[in-house]
Each structure stands twice: as C-alpha cells, then as structure tokens.
Amino acid sequence: MRKIGILAFLFTFLTTSVIADGHNNEVNVFNARHYKADAELYGKFTNQTGIKVKLINGKSGALEKRILEEGADATADLYITADAGRCGAMDKKGALQGGLTSAAIKAAVPKSFRTNKWVGIAKRARIIYYSPERVTGAELSGMTYEGLADPKWKGRLVIRKSSNIYNKSLVASLIKNNGKAATAEWAKGVVANMARTPEGNDRAQIMAVAAGEADIAVANTYYLALMLSGKKGVEQQEAAKKVKAFFPNQNDRGTHMNVSCAALVKGAPNKSNAVKLVEFLLTPESQEHFTNNTFEFPMIDGVSPSPLVVNNLGLDFKQDMKTKLASYGKNQAAAVEVMTAAGWK
Ligand SMILES: [Fe+2]
Question: Do 201 and 331 fall into the same domain?
Fold first, then answer.
C-alpha cells in the first residue's frame, strides 16, 4: 500500500511538473506602445527561446486599470509602456514586484534608469525646439528648463497640457532638483509665458513653432525624427524642417531624460520568462529595432540611434544621469499639484 502511495505521489508530482512547464513556456505582455513594430520583435524572441509571447495591446490607462483590478490573480507578467512616470506610479500603487535584477539587466541599464521592479528599455529626451528665424543663439545660450519661466519668453512658448505624462515627469524632475516651492513659482512663470492655452500633442507644439504661433516649444526628441521621416505626412515633414532642436541644462545636470519601461507585475504567472524577455529587449538586436522604428535613443551603449536622429538632433549632448527616474513617479502628485495651482491647463 505504501509503495502505491509513493507511486501515486510521484505520478501527481510529475504530472503537475509537466503542466507547470507547459504553462511556463509563455510570457504575457500588457503592451501600451508601438503595437505593430514591437510585435515583430517579440516574434524573434519566440524563435530564439521557444517562449510564446502573448501580447495584450491597449492604452496605458486601460491596461493599468486591468492590472490593478486583477491584483493577486494577475494574468500580466510584464507591463510595457512609455514614460518612467507611468511605471513609477504603478509601483507606488503596489502593482509591481522586484526581480528585474539579473546581471545582464544591471550591466545594460545605468542605475538611475531602473529600479528592481521596472527598467528602461529605450531612452528619449524632452527638449526645446525653436524657430531659428525668431530665436537667436544668444537668447538660447545656457538655456535651461528653469529658464522657460524667464519673462523674456512671454507669449512665445508652447507646451502641452499638465495632464500629459511627459510634462508630469519633467516637472517631477524639477521638484526633485529644485524643490516644490521653487517649482511652484517656476510653473507660474511658464504659464505666464504661454503663447496659447495648451492643446494638442508633442507634434502639435512643433507645428505651432513652424507656423509662427510661438518661438519655442517643449517636446520629446523622437517626434522631430518621426515628422522628418514623412510617416506623418508632408505637412508635418515640412514643419519639422523649420525648427531646430536645443538640449537644455548642458552646463549643469544635463538634459531631462525619460524611458520606455518594462515593469514586472506583482503576481506575474511567468516571472522567469518575463526576466528573459527584458534581457532580450536589451540586446543590441532589439535595441536597433527600437531606434529604427521609434526613433528613441538606445538604452545600451554601442548601438547608434536612427540616422534621422543622429543627423537632425545630434548625439553629443549631456544627459541627466543623476536624477533618478524613480523620482518621476514619486513626485508625480506634487507635480500635478504645482501645475494645477499655477493655472496650467
Ligand atoms: Fe510619445
């Protein structure tokens, strides 16, 4: 009887193992960015590893809501989205877990661009675009984010709404560096300088400068390359040719950086496969895919950005490597507070 008991136990154990292995041979990605281009990349991962990638595409808000609702019954392993502020906010809500700490990840991603729960997979900078006809080199000399509040820009600045995640993260970084009180004053100065009530996306800000509605705009780096590529039509391509890029804070901490991030969801059913996928996304092959399809900067050294980025934005700028991107999520509520108090729509 005892033997049968042991055999029965072994049988159950082996069956469970097989089922568990089968179950583990996949990874579920809640993906909020660049559905089409990134899908090809996940296909390559499956070919190399045999791990099936189940992609659940959606807008960041909807995917975050689902992750929070699922809680301990998580179906998501990884949440991939644009902006460290989004990953940081999910961490603050308790939706993530530690585990993105492998040697490969640590070697690929500088410390300030990751935590143990989420890591940057591609970089972008939030910079100033200007009209070379109406803005002189002297005016821009030594220009900083702080300088956007300078009265000399009165009626000349466009930037999108305060509800935009990129702005929340930029302002959160200013709070981290300069404090909340100083940033509250700064936000009032920025609002006073606006050429119009904020409207439209980042590309719309560049369009406004090209159309002469403003002299300077704040927008992310990859949008200029996207517009120049012609993928957004001739009108935007022509507009992009009329502006120049300027990288702020070159004489102090460097230009404000952000990332597309991959976050490890708490309760992830395939945690080790999720780690493997993040490691794959940080290989030169994947990084080249990102830079060519999204015009972001690579997260790792040794990979060149798209020629459109190299030729029109340049590479030789000082990145802010000191301000931890985790501060964007931590200071997000304070950032919204100071922008709202300043009347930033
Ligand atoms: Fe974007």
Answer: yes
